[in-house]
Amino acid sequence: MHFLDERRFYLAAAILKFRLSLKFGFAARRRAKFKKRKQIF
Fold first, then answer.
1. CA-CA distance, 37 to 33, in Å (whole number)?
2. Vertex 41, ends 36 and 37: CA angle to 5°?
3. Is this structure's pTM higher than 0.85?
4. What is the residue extent of each domain of the chain?
5. Cα separation of 26 and 14, whole Å?
6. Per residue of the chain (41 residues), what is the pLDDT tens digit?
């Protein structure tokens, strides 16, 4: 039972990390696009 709980915890942590990295990656890409637009003007 403890082993199962541990696995579930690691899975949840991995999903959370994946979602966070996805969100930060999206924000970074948007910021880069914004910077490019500023350079044009």
1. 6
2. 20
3. no
4. 14-40
5. 18
6. 677 889 999 999 999 999 999 998 888 888 888 887 777 65
The Cα 18–Cα 8 span in angstroms is 15
DSSP category for residue 1: -
Look up residue 41 and give its DSSP letter: -
**What distance in Å separates the CA atoms of residue 12 and residue 24, rounded to the nearest whole number?**
18
The tokens of 25 are what?
A: 């990656």
Give alpha helix (H) positions in the chain. Answer: 2-40
